[in-house]
Amino acid sequence: MQTKAGFVTIIGKPNVGKSTLTNKLLGEELSIITSKPQTTRKRILGVLDEKEYQIIFLDTPGILEPKYLLQEKLLEFVESSVKDADVLIFMITAKDIAKELESIQKENIKKLISKKSQRKILVINKIDLSNEETITKALKLFENSNLFEKVIPISALENYNLDTLLNSIMEYLPIHPKFYPDDQLTDEPEKFFVAEKIREKILEIYHDEIPYSVEVYIEQFKEREKGKDYISAVIVVERESQKPIILGKKGSSIKKLGNAARQSIEDFLMREVYLELRVKVVENWRKDKRALKNFGYTY
Ligand SMILES: Nc1nc2c(ncn2[C@@H]2O[C@H](COP(=O)(O)OP(=O)(O)O)[C@@H](O)[C@H]2O)c(=O)[nH]1
Ligand SMILES: [Mg+2]
Fold this sequence. Notes:
The chain is α/β, with parallel strands linked by helices. The chain has helices spanning about 20-25, 70-85, 95-105, 105-110, 130-145, 160-170, 190-205, 210-215, 245, 250-270, 290-295, and strands at about 5-10, 45-50, 55-60, 85-95, 120-125, 150-155, 215-220, 230-235, 275-280.
């Protein structure tokens, strides 16, 4: 049977809803989502497999001007994911639409969306927060800009117009054999997503600079025949002074984190786990080339 298959990369500024869309289209909570910007730190690959087609979605970190080494690495994830794409989705929201158009025409973004062989769709998300008039204006503005083949307004959160988007993607998808086996949802091991779930809860529980100063990695992941899986995770902070903040008064914060994270991990893995958390300082890891490499922020 002839199938269609290809890569669809979703890019855009932080917080526009890229990960929400990815998860909705996949029907899985693969990418972590929070109301804070810079939640996604790597490229998340998700496979939507149907009988006649296979779409590989690449969810990416938000585009911003890098201020430190980690952010430079994040931008590299965006750039390489764009290179891989057959279809590129650029996502914005309907808020301040003229400014959006202006910023898309800036050199760094223009370069990202300049590949000729790629079909490009502008997705205007969060239209549940917008009105008819604003949306119509946005559609006109971008249709006239000739930067994109299609402009599609959606609400990822409310599942609005996602079928239209999916149909357009299908239309642009090349005829190609499937890239992944039927039952494969992603290319990262369970371990990666377990660490992501912990990071998601850290983003929810802690404030200010803490969520951005934290990295999580899994030290041990033991599947046991009898009893729960054993997972021990390390929470890396940048400075000694951040350690007591993570722990909280008499360990209350890390306890809260442990409970929330365990629940979320169990939902994801669909089995019970025993979760142990440890805090460790790696001085200034966000600016440290070697540390970043150890945490997987390079190719
Ligand atoms: N109202 C509304 N909120 C949304 C929509 N899509 C995403 N969000 C919210 O926007 C925030 C950022 O979403 P996320 O997917 O993490 O954005 P990303 O940084 O682009 O990946 C979260 O609080 C989402 O719940 C939408 O269609 N409507
Ligand atoms: Mg995201």
